[in-house]
What we know:
Helix content: 25-40%
Mean pLDDT: 91
Largest sheet: 10 strands, mixed
CATH topology of the largest domain: polyphosphate kinase like
Strand content: 15-25%
Number of helices: 19
Distance between the termini: 51 Å
CATH architecture of the largest domain: 2-Layer Sandwich
Low-confidence stretches: 241-249, 254-259
Shape: globular
Number of domains: 3
Radius of gyration: 27 Å
CATH superfamily of the largest domain: Polyphosphate kinase middle domain
CATH class of the largest domain: Alpha Beta
Amino acid sequence: MDMIDLKQPELYINRELSMVAFNQRVLELAEDETIPLLERLQFLCISSRNLDEFFEVRVSGLLQMVELGSVQAGPDNMTPGEVLKAISARVNKLVEDQYRVLNDVILPLLEQQGVRTIRRSDWTAEQEAWLNNYFEEELSPVLSPLGLDPAHPFPRILNKSLNFIVSLTGKDAFGRNSGLAVVQAPRALPRLIQIPPSIPDTGPYDFVFLSSVIHAYADRLFYGMKVNGCYQFRVTRNSDMFVDEEEIDDLLRAVEGELMSRHYGDAVRLEVAHNCPDDMVLFLKERFKLTAENIFKVNGPVNLNRVSAIADLVDRPDLKYPSFTSSVPKQLTSSKSIFEAIRKRDILLHHPFESFVPVIELVRKAAEDPKVLAIKQTLYRTGPTSAIVAALVAAARAGKEVTVVIELRARFDEEANVALATRLQEAGVHVVYGIVGYKTHAKMILIVRRETKGLRYYVHIGTGNYHPRTARLYTDYGLLTCDEQIGDDVQSVFMQLTSMGKVPKLNKILQSPFTLHESLLNKIKNEIKNAENGKSAKIIFKVNSLIDPQIIQALYEASMAGVRIELIIRGTCGLRPGVTGVSENIRVRSILGRFLEHTRVYYFENAGKPEVYAGSADLMPRNLFRRVEVVYPIEAKPLRERVIKDLQNYLKDNTNSWILKADGEFERLNPGTERPFSVQQYLLSELADAS
């Protein structure tokens, strides 16, 4: 073990390339014939949305590093410039696959089901008449075509907006030859237009892209001139917010001030119609100051996510996943109150198979209960009409002490969180914005209730956000407990977030940026020690991402010592399994399916006395060192055994699992002669549908 250099670059997979590979796996689901057709369409759109965020945040960061002349390499020894070149090659392949799946697979299959996106060449006379009227009455009045000349310079293009570059000949109204114009599609109009079924030869689900209508009637926008060509384009901009943490004195105002600049950050990607002439592509490239590596020609809508509207507009349950009803644990339904149920024993909720309603009810009942003195909660992401927020407002108005820690910098939810903070403050809630420099990502509720023997803490602590919509789409664990030591720990963390004072040593909870990283390393070392002493030693981690080099090196050391390691990593993984002499005892799988796998679970065999932790933290430097995260033990034996069984079932999945190979590529498992087993479907049957 001592002779092997565990820092050698060959042992690490590049983070950005791993993220691209994740989106390639998502796209594979769009080709999966066992998945309902409209859901396959959604997976295609998810791969597109993910790629948008990838460019807005990750690629933009790399471009800034290159601009600053940085050649600093990560554990994989790739410089920012080298990573960008590799990304371009991988993303070009991904984009090519996306449009192949759209044009050759999804759209033809939808047409077989009576769901059509009609090309201009296929419009009937009656459809064209209706669309002509739509253009004149709905579209033309809100369009402002811009001919380019010294008085009309190239306009500011909004991030990810739909635009057209138009080639013109002929003189304008003032006798000048312009040659080029830009048309910006109005944001207020839908990108997908449904033709009324009452139009002859029109089916119940016939659609036309807004871009097709603009293309068809572009000549009417430039009266007296000839339109030679009209081509879609879309620019993606740097959307990562910058807040100078040393200079700000008001985080709320600083975030508000940065929100608008997000729409007009530096360009990082240009998508343009595949038939756009090279000279016009060059013109756009120069205007946006991009290199050829970040220009993508696409055969279809420049924003694939537009087609996701079809799934919302088409009422065909047979083309979607069957509905399900989340269950509620009997312990909750058989008790007089949720507080009584929690006092009996800890309750573990596994969303979305089990309902998120008990979490909402906990806050709602706390707001109504005269014995409740205070409620404290963290909010990272929540819905615009959140029932939990309404309950917090009601509690404050009822005179209870309500404290909410809102993370204003939750990426792409900043604007919603600024509005939420204002609403809560107006209701009398004590609002704290977390710690400057450390995002508050922990998921905690603390309720202080006066009872016969004094004050008691009731706690909800989980792996996911307090967002009822994502609770139906993401898999997450949530623990309801009145364990005294956990309650004291959560209270201490809240005190730290509000007062910024030092926290006394926590009893059970592991917290970043203080104890989590070191604790995980120590627990890995303990497994190594057990393996070396001939005791049972095993590690199972289920997280979204594994990037931290120290954790990866510790897992390599554990593998070399004979510890069996199973890693269930949904997205980004920097560890390379199956390397001879280093990671032969490590197996990495990614599970993708109907629900977004979001639980973070840490299992240690501990010589036959298993320890199981769950929480909000992934194994990334940002989570371990630059965020406030909490990871909590699941100690009640029935609950611990249940989580262990869940992990074992995830390891049995042979239909929605991809195995990471030593060469860094993922390969999807095929049941072959084995009985197909989907862990998500199993949990639906066992927990949700069984109710």
